[in-house]
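Problem statement: downstream parser choked on a complex file, so we are re-checking the raw output for the adenosine-5'-triphosphate run. The parser issue turned out to be on our end (a line-ending mismatch), but while we're here, posting the original submission so the record is complete.
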Amino acid sequence: MALERDTVVVSYGEMGTKSSKVRGRMERTLVSNLDAMLGSRAVDAAVERRWSRPLIRLRNPEEEDAVAGRSPAAHRTSSDDAADAAADTFGVVAARPAVSCEPEREALLDILESLAGEQRSEESFAVRVSRAGPKSAHEFGSRELERVGGAVVEEQTGASVDLDDPDVTYRVEAREDEAFVSTGERVGPGGLPLGTQGTAVALVSGGIDSPVATWEVMKRGCVVVPVYVDLGDFGGPDHEARAVSTMRRLADFAPGFDVRPRVVSAGDLVAELAAEVGATRMLSLRRMMLRIGETVAQEVGAHAVVTGESLGQKSSQTGPNFGVTDAATTVPVYRPLLTRDKPDIVAQARKIGTYDDSTLPVGCERVAPSRPETNAALAAVEAAEPERLLSRAETVAREARVVEFE
Ligand code: ATP
Ligand code: MG
């Protein structure tokens, strides 16, 4: 029978650089977010906040496996599910399914030997040991245990050591009163716990970029209120459905938070723009969207508006044009993808699972004039704009409809 991992050791990154007061607050948020994530995936576990690493304690994993009748070879245990859940939680840098034990040499070597039974001989490995607490807390030194532990694994597997790029890493983390031995580390998103950086409105078109931009600000701790602007004849129900389904996917990263999208009907304003405005049309469209975002931001207490724009990606996304669009709003506009290349954004969309829903061309493309302005002057844009465009944008924004996820 394979040795059961009863714990997942969670480590975070940047939070560690905060003052103890701020860190304590962020740790509490992280623990509550981990709890919600585990709950949303029906993983039966409790999160404990100890030292600088939260621990996920699984409830009776062995018993659970026996009840489920899972065979040790083909099993996927709750520690795998718990580690995957932690690795989808913002703020988490790594999640390691571990076997816990007394911080003693014999116990640790026994566990290393058992875990080595799961390793194939052609896989290289490394044993890494870290200790916390006073030197006297442990009867072994870190380097010494790495050496002896490495020999145990080598004997058990016949595999060779590779300290630079091992296929399997056995990590021993010894604290004063408990130790953990893990393999199969998952890499988390990093960033800061969701909810520690207030709220931002995210303009989402359902295209490839905006869900990635939204995920990026969530990663930095912002709760998002997604806003989709219905472009009327230039958009359509399929566009809205696509925007909502990408947001549904992002909601999986935010259990316990209200991230329901809002839909703003701007069809009449867009039709007017298309009929009356020439080269600067897209800029006025963007300005209208930012003002809609600002209005919703004021209503929900958000401090910024997020877009999926990237420098030079489109005619409306040149440096001078950003200046003209931003003049339509007083809240900061966050553009997390500003310097990112499209292939990189596409790869990330696939990774976070928003790509499939976002591959129809967006409505914006259909509004675009044949010769768009790339170097606009604010006065010229304002002069060509339909009367009271921005205050009418505020009016439609106040009538936003909240969409419930199925
Ligand atoms: P994506 O929307 O993913 O960026 P895209 O690159 O084809 O796809 P753009 O025309 O570049 O779309 O739009 C720039 C940004 O404007 C988007 O990233 C999004 O933040 C915002 N946006 C565009 N259309 C809409 C819309 N219908 N509703 C809300 N926001 C929109
Ligand atoms: Mg884009």
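For whoever reads this later: Residues 203-205, 207-210, 227-229, 231, 289, 307-309, 314, 362-364 surround adenosine-5'-triphosphate (ligand 1) (CB under 6 Å).
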